[in-house]
Amino acid sequence: MNFYNISNLNWNGWLIDLSNVKSRLSSFFIWNEGDGKFLNYSKPKGKAQTSCQRDVLINADYLPANIGIPIFSKKAKDIFEKRMPSEMSFYECSIECEGSDELFFLCKVENYLSIIDEEKSSFRRLIDGTKLIDIPSYKYDELFFIARDKVFCERLIVSQRFVDICNEENIKMNFIRC
Questions:
Q1: What backbone torsions phi and psi does residue 6 show, to the nearest 5 degrees?
Q2: Helix axis angle, 160-168 relative to 74-83, nearest 10°?
Q3: Which of 1, 127, 160, 176 has the fewest CB within 10 Å, making it most exposed?
Q4: Taking the complete model, does pTM exceed 0.90, yes or no?
């Protein structure tokens, strides 16, 4: 099975800066901790880097962020909700660029699977003994569209099925084969 990382090659290295106050966004969206109720009371806000151009932003279906949370356009969200209804949840987010706010959606991946092949991956050890993936190797035989690893939650991949849907629906994003 082929696996991919999501990319936006047209973005010239730009990132969206998501304010991660008290690490609530990363805890909920990446580490699968908590219930996300804080999102009922505050809408996350991101800011495009100053060199980012608004016309590029509003024509993108995927935005790369400074933390590992996928950000999708309304068009992409609507298609994913229709074609992959149980694999992702979406939360409104405003992205500031060149003085105006644009509506996008943070994506909570619902699949936490054992996708890292620890025997074939290489790791570095931190002083405290924590293992960091240096070069990942992926494995998984069951069908899915998008998933995070159960242990190494920062690792997010998509399947060939996800890529095919994006191509069929003309969703503007790129993929890098893992």
A1: -80, 140
A2: 120
A3: 127
A4: yes
Looking only at the bridges linking them, the beta strands covering 62-63 and 88-97 are unpaired
Strand order in the sheet with 100-109: 16-18, 45-48, 88-97, 100-109, 71-72, 62-63
Q: What is the full per-residue pLDDT of the chain (178 aa) written as tens digits?
A: 799 999 876 667 788 999 876 789 999 999 999 999 999 998 999 999 888 888 889 999 999 999 999 999 999 999 999 999 999 999 999 999 999 999 999 999 999 999 999 999 999 999 998 888 999 999 998 899 999 999 999 999 999 999 999 999 999 999 999 9
124: left (phi over 0), alpha (psi -120 to 50) or beta: beta
